[in-house]
Amino acid sequence: MPNDSLASWNDGAAKEAILDFVRRVTAEREPDFVPENERIAVFDNDGTLWCEMPVPVQAFFADDRLKALAPQHPEWRTTEPFKSKLAGDMKGVMAQGIKGIAELAMATHAGMTTDEFNAIVREWLATAKHPKLGRPYTKAVYQPMLEVLEYLRAQGFSTFIVSGGGVEFMRVFAEEVYGIPPEQVVGSTIKTHFEPRGGTPVLVRDPELDFFDDKAGKPVAINKYIGRRPIACFGNSDGDREMLMWTTLGRPDGRPAFGLIVHHTDAEREFAYDRQHVLSGQLDKGLDEAPGYGWVLADMKNDWKTIFPA
Amino acid sequence: MPNDSLASWNDGAAKEAILDFVRRVTAEREPDFVPENERIAVFDNDGTLWCEMPVPVQAFFADDRLKALAPQHPEWRTTEPFKSKLAGDMKGVMAQGIKGIAELAMATHAGMTTDEFNAIVREWLATAKHPKLGRPYTKAVYQPMLEVLEYLRAQGFSTFIVSGGGVEFMRVFAEEVYGIPPEQVVGSTIKTHFEPRGGTPVLVRDPELDFFDDKAGKPVAINKYIGRRPIACFGNSDGDREMLMWTTLGRPDGRPAFGLIVHHTDAEREFAYDRQHVLSGQLDKGLDEAPGYGWVLADMKNDWKTIFPA
Predict the structure, then answer these.
(1) Which chain A positions have a beta carbon within 8 Å of B227's beta carbon?
(2) Cα(B283)–Cα(A156) distance, integer angstroms
(3) Radius of gyration of the CA atoms of chain B, in A
(4) Any idea what the Cα angle at residue B67 is, between residues B64 and B71, rounded to 5°?
(5) Most CB contacts within 10 A, which of A80, B155, B200, B262?
């Protein structure tokens, strides 16, 4: 039976699995019926809803931001990790370890108010383009997944992002691009503090990590922010493994649950990567475990008619 | 013009202010119109939606839980702060300082899975009764505020709790009692961690504070969890001062905004307390600032026809 809701999906096991699951949980008086308030679906962002190659979009943002700020920071010319980064010497950056990466992130993401940060991100997204795809990052999103989001919402689901990306970065575009409002975006956070500033209160972004929403942090964040166990989970890497487990395995409530992994198999139309791609977006354990745990693999090359919106 | 939506409110300035604000932001084509997705209203819980006297409900829970656990912990008979607490010696408990209070909280709130904790709270709420009011805590809620919640939602608002109370404690009853689903409950959190437990994954509650959602923490939590600035804020104590400020003062978006403080003035039907009540629920600065900031005071004795649901 054709279903136009997922028009960019080729007929096949992945598409059928999505439609079948939704049919089961929305059919009243059937044993698998789930009431609307419990129809929570969670989506990773980088690599699941939009392109994360060659590096996650937020890394491009940090790069551009660093260059824009460099003139105000002459000391960066002689201080690591800024020196290496501005010289395009990634080996030099890596030599500084995770501390160096964190310093770059904080220099570009902290020290301003939340309103100022939102404006900076909004402005950047309006003009920046993906280096290989040649389109704005907000158009480097996956059309088949946009259709899944819309289809699930039409069927009474609430759709949440649960991503390692910065929550205030994603909230700038998630509502317009994905139809996901700020209060349904869960992500990594840095600390902020409140300042009354004489009747014009602000929140200031501090250079300290608050929470990194990846791997085993994802179920923790789901519980903290959403407070309900999702019945559907969409990811693409081993960073999503624990939230896939939390969604689909050993549920004491006996609810049916659905897990799907977007498998990047299309070097021609997008990028092909899985086990070998260790920097970010690695999919290794998930490939081994998917069959046993019943997680559906969406093969981008074969399952998706189109990758990006027109 | 009578409005039955707030039937338990006496006609007067407070009721009129609520109705007037809602009329202004929902009237299309008027300058103060706010689209539905931005109609965020935040509510403190203790003392704003339910009774917090003589101590907040969660403290009663901790007490009962400590007594229930005591037989398994013979060492508590000789170790502070447990020894004093079990002997009913509050002076002895206080002598242990904030560290002692935290130890009591962790002993009763941590060390189990999130599912186990939910079941414990659910069971307790089903039988426990308020010592003075003689009714279940879930019926020691304020009827006029239930009406405000329902009225706002009928007018396209999303209603959130933003409370110093434990988020997993409140989520057990907030949906049934207030019509507020788990994902719209923001509160204090303790750390949790994910354990796969051989295919039956759990989240374990650890004895460490993650975030205390009070005072200047409230705007921080609003930004982190909701990601949008509320246009209406309801509180009752100086713990709500910063989120009232964040809602109503110096908004760069120019949105109209509303702040209301529930003032506990009714010793006969509930409790009367404000400036002198320093332990919790103190309302001191808020009383001074309300007129200047345009925050509405709801005088429980004069503005509320009834306090509790029948």
Answers:
(1) 167-168, 171, 182-183, 185
(2) 42
(3) 20
(4) 150
(5) B262
What tokens appear for A289 in the block?
């475990």
- Cβ proximity of A107 and A69 under 8 Å: yes
Which backbone phi and psi does A196 adopt, to 5 degrees? -65, -30
Handedness of CA A212, A214, A216, A222 (dihedral sign): positive
pLDDT computed for residue A3 by the predictor: 56
pLDDT of residue A4: 84
Give pTM, 2 decimals.
0.96
Q: Residue range B113-117: average pLDDT?
A: 98
Q: What is the pLDDT of residues A82-92, one digit of tens each?
A: 999 999 898 88
Q: Is A252 on the interface with B (CB under 8 A)?
A: yes
Residues of chain A contacting B168 with CB distance shorter than 8 Å: 227
Please give the mean pLDDT across all residues of chain A. Answer: 96
CA separation for the pair B276, B279 (Å, rounded) = 9
Which of B114, B216, B242 is closest, CB to CB, to A223? B114
- Among chain B residues, the shortest Cα distance to A215 is held by B194
Q: Do A185 and B245 touch (CB under 8 A)?
A: no
Q: Distances from the Cα of B9 to the Cαs of B6, B291, B303, in angstroms?
A: 6, 21, 6
CA distance A113 to chain B (A): 12
Closest CA to B46 of B181, B175, B188, B153: B188
Q: Where are the alpha helices (DSSP H) in chain A?
A: 13-26, 57-69, 82-86, 90-94, 97-109, 114-127, 143-154, 167-178, 217-221, 241-248, 285-293, 300-303
pLDDT at residue A94 tops 90: no
What is the 8-class DSSP label of residue A295?
Answer: P
The helix/strand/coil state of A143 is helix
Q: Is B192 touching A (CB cutoff 8 A)?
A: yes
CB A61 within 8 A of CB A124: yes
User: Is the Cα dihedral B6, B184, B49, B256 positive or negative?
Assistant: negative
Which residues are CB-contacts of A197 (< 8 A; sequence separation ≥ 6)?
B250
B-facing residues of A in 14-53 (CB < 8 A) are: 37, 40
Do residues A81 and A309 lie in contact, with contact meaning Cβ atoms separated by under 8 Å?
no
Q: Residue A232 contacts by C-beta under 8 Å, 6 or more apart in sequence?
A: A21, A39, A40, A41, A42, A152, A157, A247, A257, A258, A259, A260
Residue B3's pLDDT band (boundaries 50, 70, 90)? low
Could you report the predicted ipTM of this complex, rounded to two decimals?
A: 0.96
Transcribe A36-69 into DSSP letters: GGG-EEEE--BTTTB---SS-HHHHHHHHHHHHH
